[in-house]
Hints:
- The complex is a heterotrimer of chains A (52), B (596) and C (166).
- Chain A is an all-alpha fold.
- Chain A contains one helix and no strands.
- Chain A has one helix at residues 18-43.
- Chain A is rod-shaped.
- A two-stranded parallel ribbon of chain B has the order 1-2.
- Chain B has two domains: 8-561, Cytochrome c oxidase-like, subunit I domain (Cytochrome C Oxidase, Chain A, Up-down Bundle), CATH 1.20.210; 562-596, no CATH class.
- With 596 residues, chain B is mainly α.
- In chain B, helix 5 packs antiparallel against helix 6 (146-176) and helix 8 crosses helix 15.
- The radius of gyration of chain B is 24 Å and the shape is globular.
- Chain C contains one helix and ten strands.
- In chain C, the strands form two sheets. In chain C, strands 1, 2, 3, 5 and 8 form a five-stranded mixed β-sheet that branches. Chain C has a five-stranded mixed β-sheet with strand order 4-10-9-6-7, with no helix packed on it.
- Chain C has one helix spanning 5-30, and strands spanning 59-64, 67-75, 78-80, 84-87, 90-98, 103-107, 113-116, 122-128, 132-137, 150-156.
- Chain C is elongated, with a radius of gyration of 20 Å.
- Chains B and C meet through helix 4, helix 8, helix 11, helix 12 and helix 18 of B and helix 1, strand 7, strand 9 and strand 10 of C.
- One copper (II) ion (CU) binds at residues 103, 138, 140-142, 146, 149 of chain C.
Amino acid sequence: MSTETAKKEIDHEDFDPKGTLALILLYFVILAILWIFMYFIEFLGNDLTVIG
Amino acid sequence: MSDALESGAPSFLDQFPDEAKLVRATLWSAFIALILGGLFGIIQTLHRTDILRVMDSSYYYTVLTAHGVLMVVSFTIFFLVGVFTWAVVRSLDRPLVDIRYSWTWYGLMVVGTLMAVVAVLGGFVDSTEMSADVLFTFYAPLQAHPLFYGGLAIFLIGSWLAGVDWFRAWYAWKREHPDERIPLQTFMALTTMLMWYIASIGIAIAVVVFLLPWSLGLFDEVNALLTRTLFWFWGHPVVYFWLMPAYMLWYTVLPKLAGGRLFSDPLARVVFVLFLLLSTPVGIHHQYVDPGIAEGFKFIAMTNTMFLLLPSLLTAFTVVASMEYGARRRGGTGLFGWLRALPWARPAFTGMALAGLMFAAGGFSGMINAGMNINYLVHNTLWVPGHFHLTVGTAVALTFMAATYWLWPQLTNKPLFSRPIGLLQVVMWFVGMALMSNAMHVSGLFGVPRRTAEPEYQGFDFTPAFGTMNEFDMQIAIGGTLLFISLGLFIGNVVLTSFGTKQSSLGEDLPPALSGPSDSPVVLDNLKLWVGIALVLVVLAYSLPLASIISRGGLFGPGVGTYPMIVDTFSALIESVAHAGITETLAQFEVGVIVQ
Amino acid sequence: MHIHNYEKIWLVLAMLLIVAFISTVAYGATAMGVDMISDDEETINPDALDEDQRFAEPRVEQVGENEYEAYVVALQFAFQPDPIEVPAGSTVTFYVTSRDVIHGFEVVGTNANVMVVPGEVSTFTVEFNEAGEYGVLCNEYCGDGHHVMEGSVVVVPEEEYDGGDQ
Ligand code: HEM
Ligand SMILES: [Cu+2]
Ligand SMILES: [Cu+2]
């Protein structure tokens, strides 16, 4: 492709994937909230606990 | 034609015609399994949701066995051997050592599949004694026809020999390139195969030592807990066996599709090494609520499982960063605005990206499955198929379909029949799966079991916290229907592509990583070292539980009988009554028959 | 080996998540006392349940004040006894085993959900506080009548309890 050269070249050190960091932090928050919901509300809040 | 050749790269078919032919054959086998599996998938979806019942419920389990085996044994593994063959040959830039050898392993895999599938489909034919309604987990003492176990064994051997083929190609390459790093795609294929060899120990022992001779009548008892544990010794790493080719495509092809390059080659190697180390010593997480296994072993399996999240979480970062890099090169800006600069019109890109997104969701339900005591909540409910239709059923299957749109032209020299249909297909899969899987997860939480022809009971109703059972069944049925249509579009597109006319220069290069292999320590390429550590971890995780199971129940079990899965209900009942030797329970059995 | 700073951040967070998950489960196991099915019971010959004093006659037995034991047999395609009758306000230990193949024992809509493997006895203890009725289903494929395999747990008011014999 001839357009290739017109594209910006960025190398590993210069490139800060800010968008990726933001997305992955969002994912982290979702995971944490869902885990708490599933463990403490859905599971521990459910009927009958196996205690022995 | 010569004109076109100058403007583009030669394709894989131009460079390696013999290997291209082999890869095409493996992919066709995969697609045939996929479409048949999909047919069974839609039948069982409509059956269990009571939308359309075309057969007696006793056949449901024949259908379900066929769906499971065709999808997660045939489809995934045929695709894997094809795409790894492509990747090894492409990245070493040399042909396989002996193509006749390669056709041999392919032939074995085909024969093995046919044997197993014939045994399963025998379940539909009342006049044969042959059947294998044991589901893809074939838990003893349910017993399949020997053809089923024999087929599985031959299929497995074929897959092992395929791995040997890639190792041979690599040794040959090493002689020609003594001091070079293993090319990334080859590295991925080889580490995956090493994991596969270790994992196979479990299933090989289960099938060859116990189940096959037992089905042939050489002995008449097996230890149900032992064969089940050996199954899961293999059963969890096989999950990563399905996933690794998809990861390889995300690491090496997806960045290119996004217009960028892989962010970090060293990290990709670290991730594959972690999978080799950690995939196997975790299988007991499938047995959290099994009797006969101490809680301590379960806790150890959980800890290993949780650390196995790490390579997947790292992958999420590297792959998204590679896409962002591509988007920014294409002129994307802003914290999230770059997402718009991605090539969403390309089905290969969109399919893989949506597959990755679904994997993020499936990752979450997988984290729940990994938790030890929370397993009481979800074990064997519809939540579980909800989970793995996101992982193997979408992250893997949709990635494979999307990759086909990119790879198939390079294997055939024929451009894709239709990109818009391809785009519609991948989006439809995403929507269908979102519906089906979501409803399955929720149904599981209020107790609806998996693997059940008619989840409708005499004595009680399911009580969802919101909505009704009917609404969730509708969602499952609509989602399943969309999936099936999507599958039809996919196969149609591939078939019509094959009828197209040949063109030249359809080849595509893969760009090197931003941070290349020279940035990573050489020890990463020391495969012997990693195999050694992986084996030690397996021994640590499994020797005590297995020793305990055997010392408690004996190698052949504490008097567990034999239950051939013959479809004719009555003869099955007679069999089991005869074995159990208890006439008093006959009344109970009869209840079962009448209600059916 | 270069690792980008953002990747290092994510690596730390990912490890944190993993440790947090393990800790939550450990918290459930210790502070909340959620116990796992384990290997406390001896193996048993599924062909000889008739000679076993617990399982020859599947039943509920009182073993202490408000303490009961339920001996349950799963078989193609039923549970015995059915219903399993216990009084409200009791602590019940279940002993579940199989006469033939692998089954599941799921008290529908609850956390009582275990595998039943021939040759092994699954034991677990739960408390039934209020009177009511629970469905029980088999959630492991066990043959072509699997979908009809169901049972029930009936929790009767304490004063009406007659020992669980039907
Ligand atoms: C047309 C698309 C599909 C539909 C409609 C579909 C539907 C279903 C349904 C409803 C079940 C649950 C049945 C039950 O537990 O009673 C199921 C099970 C399963 N599906 Fe699919 N599925 C599809 C595609 C796939 C794909 C692509 C894969 C994997 C590559 C897959 C792998 C499995 C497996 C392994 C099971 C479990 C079988 C068992 O429990 O033994 N499915 N499928
Ligand atoms: Cu697993
Ligand atoms: Cu069952």
